[in-house]
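Sequence design from tokenized structure. All designs in this work follow the same two-part layout: the structure record, then the generated sequence. An example of the structure record is given first.
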């Protein structure tokens, strides 16, 4: 398990307890200070299977196919290059692994003036994107079967008139990478031969035959 933006490490420590002595939980945070605090918390609890490293979400210091699960709690919102962050999450997941993200999304596009306000960034307002944009970024990074698990309205404090909501999303890395090119456009019937049709059919009710093992 990998936690993106692990802070003081509380979620990682809970995960370390859940996966047991044969599993591992890793937290990645941008600042050395938070990583040091998380390491102290892990030492105090004797969590030998919890590890914390300094790193950016856009360049995770982890090998390919490292984790079964990647999680993040209201951190992707703060990342300017969300597309790269999702590509990195996809890279470190094993085939068939899942990404679970809690974040703040906007009902409509955030105005440019708000995007340029440093205080709006620190308040998790400026970095919010719409839910369709979130789904698009996940799909372009290679994820499929994205879905909303929880959703609630968020009160936006400060001077910004932006309508926000809190969502928890789950998406999966395919077990087998589908072909990149389609011999026909679009794929015929209910068998996918390219990544675009694979994602389209996988999201359809009934989980039809993709022509690929899943």
């Amino acid at each position: 398990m990998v936690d993106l933006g692990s802070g003081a490490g509380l979620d990682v420590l809970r995960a370390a307890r859940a996966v047991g002595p044969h599993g591992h939980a890793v937290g990645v945070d941008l600042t050395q200070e938070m990583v040091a605090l998380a390491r102290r918390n892990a030492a105090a609890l004797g969590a030998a299977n919890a590890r914390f490293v300094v790193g950016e979400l856009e360049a995770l210091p982890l090998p390919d196919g490292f984790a079964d699960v990647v999680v993040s709690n209201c951190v992707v919102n703060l990342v300017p290059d969300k597309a790269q962050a999702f590509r990195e999450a996809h890279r470190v997941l094993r085939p068939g692994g899942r990404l679970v993200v809690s974040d703040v999304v906007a009902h409509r596009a955030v105005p440019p003036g708000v995007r340029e306000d440093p205080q709006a960034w620190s308040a998790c307002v400026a970095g919010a994107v719409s839910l369709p944009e979130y789904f698009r970024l996940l799909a372009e990074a290679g994820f499929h079967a994205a879905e909303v698990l929880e959703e609630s309205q968020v009160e936006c404090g400060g001077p910004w008139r932006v309508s926000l909501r809190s969502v928890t999303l789950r998406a999966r890395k395919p077990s087998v990478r589908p072909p990149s090119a389609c011999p026909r456009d679009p794929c015929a019937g209910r068998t996918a031969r390219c990544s675009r049709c694979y994602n389209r059919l996988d999201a359809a009710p009934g989980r039809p035959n993709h022509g690929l093992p899943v």
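Residues 183-195, 205-214 have pLDDT under 50 and may be disordered. We note this feature because it recurs in several other targets discussed in the main text.
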